[in-house]
Amino acid sequence: MKKRWKRLPDSRSEPAGIERRILRRLPMIALAGTAACVAISLFARLLWWGDTSVETARALQMIDIWVIAAVVLHWTVVVTVAIGSFIVFVMKGPAYIADRYDLPDENAPR
Asked: Cα 107 from chain centroid?
């Protein structure tokens, strides 16, 4: 079987740094951050249990909106950090030979 990727002859891989630790911890960070945000909404509902006034319903709805916004922001930050860590992880790997692109023989642009 023919190898598809050819390594550059004198390329080297850099040792793993903080990016691998970040990538390993990100699922737990995402889960814990989401749980912390949702816990605020659940705590508010527990605090105002049995209160059926319009003001309480309005306050709970506003808390839910803020919690949803916080969860979306948290996920966005986690995905952004994951993309950055993955890019660093890939860039620390070995260099590969790229396919060449044959230029046309014409000197003038069309």
From this structure: 45
Q: How many residues does the chain have?
A: 110
Signed CA dihedral, 44, 45, 46, 52: sign only:
positive
Check if the beta carbon of residue 85 is closer than 8 Å to that of residue 40. Answer: no
- Its pTM stands at 0.74
Quick one: CA torsion of 50, 54, 60, 64, rounded to 10 degrees?
140
Which residue's entry shows tokens 């990727």? 5
> 3-class DSSP state for residue 96?
strand
Could you read off the pLDDT tens digit of each residue along the chain, which spans 110 residues? 667 777 777 777 778 889 899 999 999 999 999 999 999 999 999 988 888 888 989 999 999 999 999 999 999 999 999 999 999 988 888 877 776 777 777 676 65
